[in-house]
Amino acid sequence: MGYVLGVIGGSGLYQMPGLEDVQEIDVETPWGSPSDAVIKGRLGDTTLLFLPRHGRGHRIPPSAINFRANLWALKSLGATHVMSVSAVGSLREEIAPGDLVVVDQFIDRTQRRAGTFFDEGIAAHVSMADPVCPLLARAVTEAARQTGAKVHEGGTYVCIEGPRFSTRAESFMFRSWGCSVVGMTNVPEVFLAREIELPYCTLALATDYDCWREHDASVDITMILEILHKNVERAQNTVRHLAATLPDPARSPASSAFDNAVLTDPSRIPANIRERFKSLFDKYKR
Are 173 and 158 in contact (CB under 8 A)? Predict the structure, then answer.
């Protein structure tokens, strides 16, 4: 099959039995260094690229993550798909702590993050109506169900700036918008993946009920870590099942995201910018 699955999440994910030919790769990108070295390994015919989003030791807060470098590093190492594994707060009674959610929509409430690759020398407008690859989402859902977890298919992830948790008023507001979960890390990650034509999907791990249930204890980090530690093996097994069932990336809506997105006159695009996005320009012969 020869696919390459990029996995962005906690550092515990790549410490999984059966991962062969493991190596650590340092990558530099036009946007600087990613959060950490990429761990490359192999499961059967599939190559895996693991990138700890917060760096090993969880040293990088959400707003300081170099999202552009992270996605570019995976792309430059040949990733054909990207799966995010992320802790979230539940905004729905039916999504209990410990449940998994394969989200399909996002609301951006961040304020301080570089949200595009196309902010210098080129104007490109990529459609984000449905930023998650539906084929990959279906495969992730089935892979997660193979672990015995309760999996919710579909839902909206509202991304807040962090690092603080929501106020109760904000939590009620997000519920009124119809959001399913709240987190701090998947925006602009999901949008950047689509800009460079990487099929992307999120496996969200519900760790708490945020703070909208007024008679519950407010969310704290101890509660989150307890649930997360229980879910590491489940997330690893989801990756294992997914690695054997990855869909053809050529059939993904992401595969043609850059086509007709550029408005800049080709003669006005600086040579260094054209070189930076050479693979995309060459693909569409522009």
Answer: no
Residues sharing a CB contact under 8 Å with residue 166, sequence separation 6 or more, in sequence order: 89, 160, 174, 182, 210, 211
CA dihedral 129, 135, 141, 143 (to 10 degrees): -150
DSSP 26: -
Cβ atoms of 27 and 45 within 8 Å: the answer is no
Looking at 108, 130, 208, 282, which residue is catalytic?
A: 208
| Per-residue confidence band for 62, with pLDDT thresholds at 50, 70 and 90 | very high
Distance CA 55, CA 38 (A): 10
Known catalytic residue: 208? yes
Tell me, what's the pLDDT at 12?
74
Contact by Cβ (8 Å): 101, 152: yes
Which architecture, in CATH terms, is 85-283?
3-Layer(aba) Sandwich (3.40)
What is the pTM for the complete model shown? 0.95
Domain limits of the chain? 85-283
Spot the catalytic one: 36, 104, 108, 210. 210
Looking at the predicted structure, is the pLDDT value of residue 69 above 80?
yes
